[in-house]
Amino acid sequence: MSEGGPVLRVAVLGCGSVGSQVVRLLQEQAEDLAARVGAPVELAGVAVRRIDAPREVEVPPGLLTTDAAGLVARDDVDLVVEVIGGIEPARSLILSALEHGASVVTANKALLAEDGPTLFEAAEKAGRDLYYEAAVAGAIPILRPLRESLAGDRVTRVLGIVNGTTNFILDKMDSTGAGFTESLEEAQELGYAEADPTADVEGFDAAAKAAILASLAFHTRVTASDVYREGIADVTAADVASAADIGSVVKLLAIAELNDDAVSVRVHPAMIPRSHPLASVREAYNAVFVESQAAGQLMFYGPGAGGAPTASAVLGDLVTVARNHLAGSRGVGESAYAQRAVLPMGETRTRYHVAIDVDDRAGVLATVAMAFSEHGVSIQTVRQEGRGADAQLVVVSHEATDAQLSATVEQLRGMEIVREVTSVMRVEGRDE
Ligand SMILES: NC(=O)c1ccc[n+]([C@@H]2O[C@H](COP(=O)([O-])OP(=O)(O)OC[C@H]3O[C@@H](n4cnc5c(N)ncnc54)[C@H](O)[C@@H]3O)[C@@H](O)[C@H]2O)c1
Ligand SMILES: N[C@@H](CCO)C(=O)O
Ligand code: NA
């Protein structure tokens, strides 16, 4: 690089799992990054909560500060990487960075899903970039493909396994027959699940990612509160065994679908056929399956979390944002022109798998079938297992609205011939 030429100065906010790896890669790959960007990319400062805390990377003396707000307001900061997480102070810091003329890269799905539009408008107003590939499915390139590569196509559906912790737990349940609690404990012992696993297990993390995916796929604005959400805490070993019986596997799916001009965005456990590409996503891996009009089916697969994989996505964004900054231009901004309505869950069309303990006597099957038909739900398959007092009917429906299906189950639960509805789960992903 010629002496006296432009230099891009980066502030990193937060030096935890992701931040420490961003700082490490910035230092280790300085030469390549400079060549790719067209100017040296230098660390201007690293904001931390405690200067003396142990961390996984050595930060050059003098670069650490506990004053994140002061760092983003500095004149010599061109690019800001926000990897603190959470809503505040992350939001104020990003807004301040943009106001002070910096371009921003963040991995903060919670903030983007809650208040993305405020950030996008601020970036637009400032004429700066706001990139966030790391926010969904970690290292997997999925947001840029949706935003750029597929911008000429019409995406109709996105099905994602976007939470590694829950995929690890469900995979354990499937491969060992273990229950939810036992599998969660193993995930915690191995460091996949946090001590407080609520955000993952209850589907909040996946719902934030679903909102971001739906917004980009369908050129609209979807926030976390628009997303229907069910976690995996109620998935039982019996549900997983029931899925196996019909050649399926249980996954926590983030689903975004275009229905006419409205979108349906939801996160819930669902059975998918073992022949579906998403069924092969094991352990803590992530994958996003995209269906579009012209391209057909695409799958993006890889590590959805971890310090270094997530830092890879952050650095990828940083290179793009740095190039734009150097050229005085902006990358592709958000295109939320479509303003689509979000369908209530009750109007979303899906299929149900229902396992019912019944008495094995004449007329029981007809009575159960009648409950489905009274709610306008057509049955795809019905199977009986066991005999006498141990009989079980397993019904898989055709597509109907979620309201029709849940009303059917409600009615079954109140029927005298039904001893217990032992498993109810949505079925997704056609066996194509
Ligand atoms: N870890 C992953 O695998 C992963 C994957 C994808 C996205 N993300 C996202 O990346 C972000 C960071 O995640 P993480 O796993 O590195 O979290 P982390 O908790 O390991 O790191 C966050 C760091 O920020 C520091 N911090 C908190 N408040 C601060 C402040 N006011 N000023 C300076 N530092 C402050 C904390 O001390 C901590 O070291 C989050 O938005 C997260 O959702 C993480
Ligand atoms: N906790 C998330 C990783 C960060 O998004 C997961 O389990 O996938
Ligand atoms: Na990603």
TrEMBL record:
<feature type="domain" description="ACT">
    <location>
        <begin position="353"/>
        <end position="426"/>
    </location>
</feature>
<dbReference type="InterPro" id="IPR001342">
    <property type="entry name" value="HDH_cat"/>
</dbReference>
<comment type="pathway">
    <text>Amino-acid biosynthesis; L-threonine biosynthesis; L-threonine from L-aspartate: step 3/5.</text>
</comment>
<dbReference type="Pfam" id="PF00742">
    <property type="entry name" value="Homoserine_dh"/>
</dbReference>
<keyword id="KW-0521">NADP</keyword>
<dbReference type="InterPro" id="IPR045865">
    <property type="entry name" value="ACT-like_dom_sf"/>
</dbReference>
<protein>
    <recommendedName>
        <fullName>Homoserine dehydrogenase</fullName>
        <ecNumber>1.1.1.3</ecNumber>
    </recommendedName>
</protein>
<keyword id="KW-0791">Threonine biosynthesis</keyword>
<comment type="pathway">
    <text>Amino-acid biosynthesis; L-methionine biosynthesis via de novo pathway; L-homoserine from L-aspartate: step 3/3.</text>
</comment>
<dbReference type="InterPro" id="IPR002912">
    <property type="entry name" value="ACT_dom"/>
</dbReference>
<dbReference type="InterPro" id="IPR036291">
    <property type="entry name" value="NAD(P)-bd_dom_sf"/>
</dbReference>
<dbReference type="InterPro" id="IPR016204">
    <property type="entry name" value="HDH"/>
</dbReference>
<keyword id="KW-0028">Amino-acid biosynthesis</keyword>
<dbReference type="InterPro" id="IPR005106">
    <property type="entry name" value="Asp/hSer_DH_NAD-bd"/>
</dbReference>
<dbReference type="Pfam" id="PF03447">
    <property type="entry name" value="NAD_binding_3"/>
</dbReference>
<comment type="similarity">
    <text>Belongs to the homoserine dehydrogenase family.</text>
</comment>
<dbReference type="InterPro" id="IPR019811">
    <property type="entry name" value="HDH_CS"/>
</dbReference>
<comment type="function">
    <text>Catalyzes the conversion of L-aspartate-beta-semialdehyde (L-Asa) to L-homoserine (L-Hse), the third step in the biosynthesis of threonine and methionine from aspartate.</text>
</comment>
<keyword id="KW-0915">Sodium</keyword>
<dbReference type="Pfam" id="PF01842">
    <property type="entry name" value="ACT"/>
</dbReference>
<keyword id="KW-0486">Methionine biosynthesis</keyword>
<keyword id="KW-0560">Oxidoreductase</keyword>
